[in-house]
Each structure stands twice: as C-alpha cells, then as structure tokens.
Amino acid sequence: MHFHGSLQDLQALVASLGLPCHWEHKGPFEMAVFDDGESNLRLNWWPGSGELRLVGDPAQRVDLEKLLAEKLAALD
C-alpha cells in the first residue's frame, strides 16, 4: 500500500478508521501505534516512498488492512 499525501492527511485517514492510536516519529518513517489494548498493531509510513506497512498480529491485522485499503482506494 502507498500514500503520497501529507502526514496530517494520513493522520486524518487513520483517525477515520475509528481505532485509537498515537503517532511516533521514527527517523525515516512515521508510525501509528494502535492503542486498543488488545493488539500490537503498528502502521509504518515512509514519506519519501509513500510506502505504508501494517505490522502486528495477523489475526487482527487482516481486517484493518482491508479497511485501510478501501479508504486509500477511495482517495484515487
């Protein structure tokens, strides 16, 4: 997945997923840490390439990945 907008635009898109999270700057990438108390999900974004990578428990990641992909597709 890729996102080529601004960090603020990505933060708004992630907020629209309805899951609490906080953002951390990690050198070359930005990371949304989902604070749901159940998972270890993280969304990593490299602004230079636009690459988005959702990492964490696959059982919890799959549904969120689909929802995120749908929201990204709606932007195109």
Characterization of the model:
This protein has 76 residues and is an alpha+beta fold. The chain has one domain. The chain is 36% helix and 29% strand. The protein contains 2 helices and 4 strands, in the order H-E-E-E-E-H. The chain has a 4-stranded antiparallel beta sheet with strand order 1-2-3-4. The protein is globular, with a radius of gyration of 11 Å. 13% of the residues are buried. The mean pLDDT is 92.
Keywords:
76 residues; 4 strands; 2 helices; alpha+beta
Radius of gyration, CA atoms, in whole angstroms: 11 Å
The parts where pLDDT drops under 50 for at least 5 residues are none
Q: Classify the helix fraction into a percent range.
A: 25-40%
Succession of helices and strands? HEEEEH
Provide the β-strand percentage band: 25-35%
Which class do the helix and strand fractions yield? alpha+beta
- End-to-end gap: 13 Å
